[in-house]
Amino acid sequence: MAEPQRKPGIVRRFLGKCWGVLSWIRVSLANLMFLVLIGVLIVVFVGTPRLIVAPGSVLVLNPGGVLVDQLSYTDPLSSLLAQSQQMPAETLLSDVVDAVDRAAEDERIAMLLIQLDYLQHGGLSKSQEIARALDRFRAAGKRIVAYGDNFTQDQYWLAAQADEVLLNPMGAVLLQGYGVYQSYLKRLLDKLAVDVHVFRVGKYKSAVEPLVRDDMSDAARANALVWLNQLWDSYSGGVTRTRKLEAGAVDAYINNMDTVFAATEGNTAAAALAQGLVDAIVTRDELNDYLIERVGADDEGWFKGIGFEDYLHITDREQLDPLPHDVVGLVVASGMIVDGEQPAGTVGGDTLASLIRDARRDDQVKALVLRVDSEGGSAFASEIIRQELLQFKQSGKPLVVSMGSVAASGGYWISAPADEIWATPATITGSIGIFGVFPTLDRALDKLGISNDGVGTTRLAGDLRLDRPLDPISQRAIQSTIEHGYQRFLDVVATGRSMSREQVDALGGGRVWSGVAAREAGLVDKLGYLEDAVASAAERAGLEDYTLQLIEPALTPQEALLRALFQVVGPSPAAHAAPSGRGAVNRWLEAGWRQLRWLTQLNDPQGMYAWCSGCLRP
Q1: Are strands 376-378 and 609-611 parallel, antiparallel or unpaired?
Q2: Could you tell me if 415 and 421 are in contact, meaning their C-beta atoms sit under 8 angstroms apart?
Q3: Lowest mean pLDDT: which of 177-181, 305-309, 578-582?
Q4: In what order do the strands lie in the sheet with 347-348?
Q5: What is the band of 599 on the pLDDT scale with cuts at 50, 70, 90?
């Protein structure tokens, strides 16, 4: 007689059901991915309507998100699945400049429309680079018009470079001035019984002040006011010049905003018009009619326009000329400097060093431009990068640095070895100083009834733990390494800039400089933009016929395929898309996260950081 089959136990049945659910999820995701791939292939092989640049078109310059020198890494597959997003989180500065320059020489482009409603942050330094391209476009005899539903401070400076600035009847020009404000956490940390051990050199090195103070120190306040006023003079002066306003008009608009708005009964658009900040108030439909009168309409009743990203894709296909043999390499260092291998948008010490090494070994690369847009970070990673730059220089090839919005602290550390340093007038640089931070939670845990005890063979056994107090021996030892790190920083700058250590120390101590002031102090050589640095590098290498080549990490075959598919079907800003703004609460939350985000990226092997936390990205 056969033995009766036993019924599985309750645990086994539960685990079996869990496994069944997981298997269903796995199969469903695989099927979904397969369907997405099939859809992509249909689009690729069946084809989409081919975009063209119609004669007499308007180039629509409508960047979205944040203007950057390097796009942060995003999984191409995730990008494919995120088709519902109307605008990108980031826009390459070089894409904007390239589109404007190509359009200046393109007979099919009649004029340019600047629409910045999607632009979250551009910054004065990057806007100045775009303004140079706009000047070249205007010099070709073509008109520039800017339109906005509203203009934030970042957006307005760039819009003000247009020949004509138009504003929505419900819009406003929202200017505030520049400021550096941070939340200070000392009282909170005291209430939580968190001890923050800070080690730093330089009275202006204020990166750690929010952890150990309730307010800004006098030294940090005095230094910030100097460079903030220099940047604001550049901003307000630029608006005054392009809008042909009286001196001090921008400050008067801001400082008397209540009476300015009251004079128009709270009509912010009318106030902007009365103050000369805009030329006319028009609705979106009126803007469309205005442009149709000048360039004509397309089949859908819109003005003949093409978004700058679509325009770049089209002109990329059209530019089939063979590249010159000689190359000026471009390596971008954008984001916080962190140890090890890191994705784009963060400066990995090993990643960037590898790219520099590739440029040194490539016989076609005759010179290198290092574009720095970084507040710094790990001192160790900065030194790894600098050592590779020194190897590059030993090869005999010229090395030129182009500073973007910020090249401070660790960003200056990696800039110092260059044969020549270029900064924009609004670049923030310097901040030569070192700090370290180590929090301990033993008192906080004790309040919760958690204690720590044990034995060790030495006094420092079990030290450097979050749940134990930091031994005075460790505190003195760490401070000693921080002081040595600062002396090392001084030597790096002194060697690179042909200065004495005393001269560098007088400029250091964590002090922040604008590009203009840094030029006067000898921390940078010339004021200019990326194109100037590239031209200088080529001249130093004796090149007349050359191409600029971006040197970046190679994609895996899978990433390359997905990115190619994404470029075919990926989202592109529509020339006539309506904007979606961000609320004040969202902006406040984003600012708070940026202020604390650096804590999640600290990975220096010795806990030593050359970073400028209070550096505004102008």
Answers
A1: antiparallel
A2: yes
A3: 578-582
A4: 195-201, 434-440, 609-611, 376-378, 337-338, 347-348
A5: low
Which residue type occupies 163? D
CA quadruple 507, 512, 517, 519: dihedral sign? positive
Mean pLDDT value across the chain: 85
The tens digit of pLDDT for each residue in 186-209 reads 899 888 888 888 887 766 667 788
Short-list 554, 569, 558, 550, CA closest to 79:
569
pLDDT over 60 at 579, yes or no:
no
d(CA 395, CA 360): 7
CA–CA separation, 114 and 116 (whole Å)? 6
Q: What order do you get walking across the sheet with 57-61 strand by strand?
A: 280-281, 164-167, 143-148, 109-115, 57-61, 305-307
CB proximity list for 458: less than 8 A, separation 6 or greater: none
Evaluated on CA atoms 377, 378, 379, 384, the torsion sign reads: negative
* Rounded-to-integer distance, Cα 550 and Cα 602, Å: 28
Retrieve residue 6's tokens. 């036993």
How many whole angstroms separate alpha carbon 146 and alpha carbon 278?
9
Spatial contact of 242 and 546, defined as CB atoms under 8 Å apart: no
Residue 528, class by beta-carbon neighbours within 10 Å (0-12 exposed, 13-18 middle, 19+ buried)? Answer: buried
- Other CB atoms within a 10 A radius of the CB of residue 179 amount to 10
pLDDT per position as a tens digit, 363-376: 999 999 999 999 99
On whether the CB atoms of residues 187 and 214 are closer than 8 A, the answer is yes
Work out whether the CA dihedral 130, 136, 140, 144 comes out positive or negative: positive
Task: Say which amino acid occupies 86.
Answer: Q
Sequential DSSP letters for 248-286: THHHHHHHTHHHHHHHTTT-HHHHHHHTTS-SEE--HHH
Give CB contacts under 8 A, 24+ apart, made by 33-40.
36/80, 36/81, 40/80, 40/565, 40/568, 40/569
Neighbours of 111 (CB within 10 A): 20
Catalytic residue positions, numbered = 205, 409
DSSP assigned state of 578 = P
Judge whether 144 and 162 are in contact, CB under 8 Å: yes
* Structure token pair of residue 566: 């994404």
Total residue count of the chain as it appears in this document: 618
Q: What is the pLDDT of residues 83-124, one digit of tens each?
A: 444 556 889 999 999 999 999 999 999 999 999 999 999 899
Supply the angle between the helices 10-46 and 557-569 in degrees, to the nearest 10: 60
User: Which tokens in the block code for residue 613?
Assistant: 């936390």
What is the per-residue pLDDT across 211-233, written as a single tens digit (0 to 9) for each? 888 999 888 888 889 999 999 99
Reply yes or no on whether the pLDDT at 402 is more than 80: yes
pLDDT at 493 (0 to 100):
96
How far is 446 from 530, CA to CA, in rounded Å?
55
pLDDT (0 to 100) of residue 30: 67
Confidence tier at 482 by pLDDT (50, 70, 90)? confident
DSSP per position, 446-511: HHTT-------SSTTTT-S-TTSPPPHHHHHHHHHHHHHHHHHHHHHHHHHHT--HHHHHHH-TT-
Q: Is 403 helix (H, G, I), strand (E, B) or coil?
A: strand
- The pLDDT-based confidence of 614 (bands split at 50, 70, 90) is low
The stretch 150-161 carries a mean pLDDT of 96
Is 575 in contact with 302 (CB distance < 8 Å)? yes
Max Cα-Cα span within the chain: 107
